[in-house]
Please model this.
Amino acid sequence: MTGGTPSPRVGVFGGTFDPVHNGHLHVARELREALGLDRIFWVPAGRPPHKTGQIVSSDRDRLQMLRLALRESLGDEISSVDIDRSGPSYTADMLELLHDTMAPATLVFLMGEDSLRDFPTWRDPDRIIRAAELAVAARPGIDIDIESIAAQFPVVRGRVRVIPTTELAVSSSEIRERVRDAKSLYGLVPDSVANYIREHHLYLDRADNGTLIPAR
Ligand code: ATP
Model:
């Protein structure tokens, strides 16, 4: 870019978001502040390849819960780029698409440390690293072994930042389990999301209200 205006830095937060929960909201807020991001694109996965054979809520339900969770949050936007395209949801494809449409913005792909550990098994890590920087949220006291990942994929060197974040220990699996066990979701998801789950009878009988992710 010429001139003195720096290109915007845009976070990309990908996930299944089935459902979005307060842990996602909390970590996104902390990463945004720490990294000085102008905005964050939340990108729900269309057909998560690592969830083959599992039942995932419909695109419509997952998108709607994200809309409810983010409706008062300036600077958080939802992108359906991954839901709208066919084929399995590879992060590399999604990031290249966003990279091309958002140029000259610098993309920062946000992830939890569990995702970084799986990174070497992801398809096309080199393409991911070319399209975006990586920022990994790390709980205080947890050592992340970037070196062993960099040994396998030298391209990650200098492209991954580890950001200490405070932990809000909640997961989508826990939410789904609590719904099945008729336990409260108070403090774990925004009230609007809890109401949506109740009104649409989500997670009670997965066979009835989800989509089976087919094997490739
Ligand atoms: P599931 O329990 O179904 O595996 P999840 O809670 O991990 O779901 P995803 O939608 O798979 O949610 O996660 C999207 C991203 O959010 C991933 O990068 C994951 O590491 C991160 N993430 C999920 N929960 C938390 C949390 N409590 N704190 C920080 N990051 C999180």
Summary: The longest strand covers residues 9-15. The radius of gyration is 17 Å.
